[in-house]
């Protein structure tokens, strides 16, 4: 196996898993009937608090505990943050897109304020730096020539679990019913509000882990000024590309990740002879998903009632 | 009455947002939270305008000038979002249209060496084209405009940065930024004075120019188009109820496309105003973040009650507190607190329909009690 191919696989796994987490999150939320534009913001919040936990946790704890606790914190902070969206869009019936956009704007600001304040408390000289340093060695391990991280293992488990939950359990059926036809679901005794809350909270948990999985394994220092660089929006594209189905979402995230990795490694491989820039590789997945949207829009698999607040009085 | 309630709900959003900001400042540093944090944040440019030391130096209006200069592009993107909103479309793509507009303006200014009005026209045109694409996709293929706009935002950003980096007339590799318009082609700068009044000299801030007058004039034009023309009426009819409008013989496909074209043109024009003002430089190496003005436009439109005149005031307000954020004591309070307040305000704006409903009920109940009291007295 050539070195170039190895690096390609490594980068593809790194970003593919992230996209999968977040797209799965979006999938749960949209199946329950809530469009979660805030995924990008939830990723930032999950990543922020996950990394802060890694920074603050006593270093003498067993490494297994450190990893578990920090991932749990990322998950829970993602859930808490997305509950803001759930409250606005389910209980107060506010516009889901506006609420989500607000949370995206808010997340970067929160992250910068928290990081700058944290940095100014631990040191006096580099006060107000937007960068966070952390140790990621606990999250990474080597298997033969491959460098893997815990998020890949967890991601595969969660992928299988989400497929099972969505399509093989009573809960999944109820959830999907709320996104397709909430009035009908309500008429057979399903609590639509509860189901939608569940959908949004699960999406928050997955996107929270996704945010941490994006930042932690690849670098040891993160500048929160860039947020998560549009990964949340890309994940939305993956979700549409994957037709709201966990299996296709997995394939879709790998497809998108290949292009994203090509942008990182193109100059060291044979691709350099095409004289395309990094930006063109970055652009391709977006163009691909637009094209896919154009061809599938007529028989879209999107949940029918997504984006419409459910009002009990309007049956 | 209805308008009054809407304005009250906007003000409530602002006050609650500011209150949260104050609480946050108190958490960070209770002792200095008012004097070094909250008062510079909310007074912003006004605090220096009346300061004798600054007046003596002749730079007392500089911060106000900066506020006005920063308000120009976000008033325009706010108008862009508000215009699409009237049609029931959520133009989250203002950031992408803004990017294309910036490219159009800079290309004409740096490569073709055109005068400023041609550059502005190019910015408007490119923004309009980028806005037209989601319009076409929505009208003919029924693709959700939010999703297609998000994709087009990133396609636009990557595309523009690729072209700029490869063009050595635009990209100054020694500075790793685009060339300054004022240095390469002075005729491309938007004029400073109108009717003999030199705006940038008054404010002592180079980027404050006649652009703000353009923005205000365009807001008034949009107001007239929306309220006094058949096109505006059709647009609003489609926004209220698409099916009813269609039944009444309104061509909804044509209106969707036109609304997006105009919306894109407004965002592109805003970018033109900002990048031809002479102080800002585009950074083509930064492909990780879309221009913030696009998303600020959403804030401006919502806070301005989706009204063109409201957009002017809310644009000035958002610019006011973001300049205020930079005037806080930076070693204690991060300037992003102003951004946080803005985000909170947008979040609260999402509730404003419910808030307006509750306020209306409250007022009606109040009126009824008064009415009943009057009756009993008789």
Molecular structure report:
The complex is a heterodimer of chains A (315) and B (378). With 315 residues, chain A is mostly helical. Chain A has a single domain, classed as ABC transporter involved in vitamin B12 uptake, BtuC (Orthogonal Bundle), CATH 1.10.3470. Chain A is 68% helix and 4% strand. Chain A has a two-stranded antiparallel ribbon. Chain A has a two-stranded antiparallel ribbon with strand order 2-3. In chain A, strand 2 and strand 3 form a beta hairpin. By secondary structure, chain B is mostly helical. Chain B has a single domain, classed as ABC transporter involved in vitamin B12 uptake, BtuC, CATH 1.10.3470. In chain B, 74% of the residues lie in helices and 2% in strands. In chain B, the strands form two sheets. Chain B has a two-stranded antiparallel ribbon with strand order 1-2. In chain B, strands 3-4 form a two-stranded antiparallel sheet. In chain B, a hairpin with a 2-residue loop joins strand 3 and strand 4. In chain B, helix 5 packs antiparallel against helix 14 and helix 5 crosses helix 16. Chain B starts with a helix and ends with a helix. The model of chain B has no long low-confidence stretch (mean pLDDT 84). The interface between A and B is large, with 52 and 49 residues.
